[in-house]
Write a structure and sequence with these properties.
With about 200 residues, the protein is an all-alpha fold. Helices cover about 75% and strands about 0% of the residues. It has ten helices and no strands.
Length: about 200
């Protein structure tokens, strides 16, 4: 975990450095080469764009996916489902309550997957596109939310049956844990998204 954090820290430094380098390079090139097909991030237009479009640059499906998967990962770990699955796969001893919770969760997962299949893979399914295709369609557009919602649901079922979650407060707290543990990824996302959109602006793409 510490090694991963170190990698992300260096990646953050690289992205921030590239952003500064792009700002300086765009200014220097447009100052020296007046006819360059580039825009400067230090010009009045560039500064207005940087501040005025910052929120729009951050708003993307990737941001929503990161949020949903962070929530799902947090409750998956906090509910004990991750540990229970690990013990079950490696054929280690589980308490009766854990085993009962795990098998019930597997049944719920099977029913959930079955419902999704019926909604997306049968003829004239409601999640198919208007032309009957799976990609692109409502199913493909909502694939990450479907996965995240499933993981959250399975984790809540397991947590309640295994007595990991005793109150609604425990569930609420588990839902917020993931965003704290993946905070470093949010920083990388912000820097990466802004760098990408800055490059698009400078290159007039």
């Amino acid at each position: 975990m510490r090694k991963a954090n170190n990698i992300l820290a260096y990646l953050m430094l690289v992205l921030a450095s590239m952003q500064l380098l792009l700002i300086l390079a765009s200014w220097i090139v447009t100052s020296v080469w007046r006819g360059a097909p580039l825009r400067s991030l230090i010009s009045s237009e560039g500064i207005r764009w940087f501040f005025g479009e910052f929120v729009s640059n951050m708003a993307s499906p990737l941001l929503v996916w990161l949020l949903l998967l962070s929530i799902a990962y947090g409750i998956y770990c906090k509910s004990g489902l991750k540990l229970g699955t690990h013990l079950f796969i490696h054929k280690k001893r589980l308490q009766f309550r854990q085993l009962f919770a795990l098998w019930t969760t597997l049944i719920v997962a099977f029913l959930y997957i079955l419902i999704i299949v019926l909604l997306s893979c049968t003829p004239h399914a409601v999640l198919l596109s208007s032309t009957g295709k799976l990609f692109p369609s409502s199913f493909s557009n909502s694939l990450v939310p479907i996965i995240a919602f499933g993981i959250v649901s399975f984790s809540i079922v397991y947590g309640l049956l295994s007595n990991t979650f005793k109150t609604i407060h425990d569930i609420f707290k588990a839902l917020s844990v993931g965003m704290v543990s993946t905070m470093s990824l949010w920083i990388i996302y912000i820097l990466g998204a802004q760098l990408y959109h800055s490059l698009v602006f400078v290159m007039r793409i």
